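Changelog entry

Holo records now carry the ligand SMILES as an explicit input line rather than a separate metadata file. Below, a converted record for magnesium ion, shown in the new format.
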Amino acid sequence: MSPGLVLFDIDGTLLRRTGPHHRDALVEAVRRVTGLETTTDHIPLHGMLDPDIIARMLERAGAPKRLVRQAMPAILRAAQNIYVRKCPDLTRRTCPGVRRLLRALERRGAVMGLVTGNLTRIGWKKLERAGLRRYFRFGAFGEMSRDRAGLVRLALREARRRGWWDPSAPVALIGDAPADVQAAKANGVRAIAVATGITPLEELAALEPDLLLRDLRQLNVEDLVS
Ligand SMILES: [Mg+2]
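Structure line, unchanged by the conversion:
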């Protein structure tokens, strides 16, 4: 049994400035499957799950709900296929303190997982291209639940079912968006907010996370494990 479970968001938390490839893959997937021209402009992508972003793109292009529902599985498949082929090298896109923290957690035997709005193969591809893949044992991804709180619930269930974590050991969720803090709190998980994404520190502070950091260099591993 591990001395702690640490769940990480990806965008703005582990990685930043990863380029337009993710957005472009969603737009291209919608085009291929439905023939519709869409955009992610004017959609607050931050903290949203990929399927919700795609649904908003389609609705803004005038697609009826029935089409959104019917086309979604094919769009999710296409978006992942497109992204994994186009994902750039991300080794220089990690947020400050990420590699040091992951190495330290690994040494302490903590179990690390992902909780992200990214579709499964997009999320894993980003980590692979950033050289961070090996630190993470499992993940809960955008298409697996209706909202982020549901993703956290799935991750906890999975870690418990596999015997990697039991509720007597600490668990934390580290994220850069208000949605991460809310999802952690909804599950009784320690919420650690980090201001390396687009949400200003003051806005994160208003949500009263258990810990609020400018970046992950400020995080002590002993704060995360028992
Ligand atoms: Mg994020």
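Spot-checked after migration. Strands lie at 5-8, 111-115, 138-140, 171-175, 190-194, 211-213. The first helix runs from residue 21 to 34.
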